[in-house]
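Hey, I'm writing a tutorial for new members on how sequence and structure tokens pair up, and I'd like a real worked example in the thread rather than a made-up one. If someone can provide the structure for the chain below, I'll link this post from the tutorial.
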Amino acid sequence: MSVTVRFAPSPTGHIHIGNARTALFNWLFARQNDGRFILRFDDTDAERSKAEFAHQIAADLRWLGIEPDRTAYQSRRMDAYQGAAEKLKRAGLLYPCYETPDELERRRRIRLSRKLPPVYGREALKLTEDEKAAYEAEGRTPHWRFLLPNFDDDPFAPERTDVHWADIVRGPQGVDLASMSDPVLIRGDGSYLYTLPSVVDDMQMEVTHVIRGDDHVTNTGAQIALFEALGGEAPAFGHHNLLTAASGEGLSKRSGALSIKSLAGAGFEPMTVASLAVLTGSSTAISAMADMDALTEAFDIGAASRSAAKFDSADLDGLNETLVHGLAFDAVRDRLADAGIDVDDRRAETFWAMIRANVKKVPEAADWWPIIVAGPTDEAALDGDDLDYARNAFDVLPEGEVDGTTWKAWTDAAKAQSGRKGRALFMPLRIALTGRAWGPELSDLLPLLGREEILRRRP
């Protein structure tokens, strides 16, 4: 059996790191099993779903390294859902309900006061055709519930009905359908909630594995029942733990917290974000994976813990620094150009090899390029004895071509001339050359500048 997975976001906002975790779990599982990955937009909510969010989600996935084998839109598949709804209605498994939210809340409170589970009591099943007509004459439109198979002969006498599945993340799982309300599949305005379109699509798109957050565990029991009611075979399920913000708060597309778009805009590497999104909250050690192949090899879907995991954005900095320090010039050429660096300059590749150890993000290199091509900044200044020392030190710059040995020869000569050593020996020269008291190895910097430019920077 060929593995097919899907990621089904609602295009109602920007996806965040928690959404990316689900997408990556599916993508990596498909890669490990030579399978297919479907991007399926849950855009049946016409009022909240926006095309610009769908475009951005697709772009975010590409940025992470995810390339779908197929992209589908639920808004374009309404006929399939209508057909499934009619099939359920004919079988007596989808029934109309006319209660208002206030009426449902009052019933819930009454059940709680009687120490009964606060589940829907299926009162709508008792309505006569005349009563339904009367409600509709009032202007009420029905919402439609799926009749769960949690009874023998009498739907008003539900019995414990356990639905079991072998969860590929959490191991053996089960849900008692008698503990649940019959789920609403169609709203009063005729629009579909998530459940019915999802099951229909999974059946028709031949999805073999549904991998998602563990907030859907309870839903799985009802969905397995719906698969069976529609004559389909339920796929395998896997429910991974959720990510929260470092504060412990849940992540939300509406708040924009830790959105993939914002992390990309902040200059983080895709593999930094992907590595932390996947490995946080698992028994696999967190490290910066060089590429998707490495992350695929490290990924273990069964290694996710049972409890929610805190995602600390501060951890991104260290991982990103590790990755950036190993990036070759060709891998960052376009981004360096976007940051304002003349990548066609003969010095550009050598510059990157020198400066990458001093930056945490690729765009930060642009802060050093003007120092190479234009001159020192004015962030640090020389005065007094340091100024006099630096001026005299330029007199003993070794003759000939500047190369990787020049810096040591120069500081040896300056030391013999001045008697200085350590920080007092090299720091004034660093400031004179760059205008900063920190930066790349000067033995690497000098060849980039060349003899004429070095002498031009004499204070």
